[in-house]
Amino acid sequence: xxxxxxxxxxxxxxxxxxxxxxxxxxxxxxxxxxxxxxxxxxxxxxxxxxxxxxxxxxxxxxxxxxxxxxxxxxxxxxxxxxxxxxxxxxxxxxxxxxxxxxxxxxxxxxxxxxxxxxxxxxxxxxxxxxxxxxxxxxxxxxxxxxxxxxxxxxxxxxxxxxxxxxxxxxxxxxxxxxxxxxxxxxxxxxxxxxxxxxxxxxxxxxxxxxxxxxxxxxxxxxxxxxxxxxxxxxxxxxxxxxxxxxxxxxxxxxxxxxxxxxx
Length: 263
What we know:
The protein is an all-alpha fold. It has helices spanning 7-25, 30-34, 48-51, 59-80, 82-120, 124-133, 142-151, 156-174, 182-195, 212-229, 238-257, 259-262, and strands at 200-202, 209-211. Helix 4 packs across helix 5, helix 6 packs antiparallel against helix 7 (142-151) and helix 9 packs parallel to helix 11. The model has no long low-confidence stretch (mean pLDDT 89).
C-alpha cells in the first residue's frame, strides 16, 4: 500500500497529520482559528473555507479521512494526474464548506423565526417542541424545567428563563464549528466510483467484496437519509458529505465529457 503512494496523496497526508499534531500538542488555538464557523458568527473568517478541511476533531476523525484518501487516492492520481486529483480534493473540500455554510444559514434563520414566534406568544407546548427538536444542545435537566414551565405557563420568571434558554441555543448554532476533510474525501469517493465502477473492493465491516459503484451508491443514499433525518444528537456534518459527493460528481462528469483534457 505505502509503496504505491503517489506524490499528491503523500503531501496531503503529511499536511493533515502535521496540522493535527501541531493543533493538538503545540498550538491548540489553531482549532479556534481554522475551524469553519457560521458566516454571521463573530469567529468567522473567510479563510476558514479553506483551512477547516485540514483540521480534525480527534485522532479517529483524522484516521478515517486519511485512510480513505490512502485507499482511493493513489489510483485516481495515476489515472487523472496530480493536477486534477489536487483540484478535485480542493474544489470538493472548499465547495462542501461553502454549501454547508448556506445550509447552516437556512437552519439558523429557521430557528430564529421559531424563537421569534415563541417570544411573540409564549407557550409551554411550543417551547417543549423546540427543546425536543434541539435536544442535542441540552443537558437532561432542561426537561425538568419544561415540566415546571408547563405547570406555570403565565409565570414571567419561567417565560424569561425559556427565552434565555432559546437564545442560548441560537448562539450555540451560530458558534458551532465544522472541521474535517470529509467533503473532499467524498469527492474522491464518487470520482473513484464513476471512473472505476466495477472495481471490486473488499470491505472490512462486513467482510465482503462489493463493486465501487454500489459502495458509492450506498454512501450517497445513507448521506441523503441522514440529511433528511436531521437528528439533533448527530454531530456529523452530513450535508457537507453530500455536497462533496455532488461537487465531485459534477467535476468528473465534465472532465469525462472533455476528452481532450481528461488524461
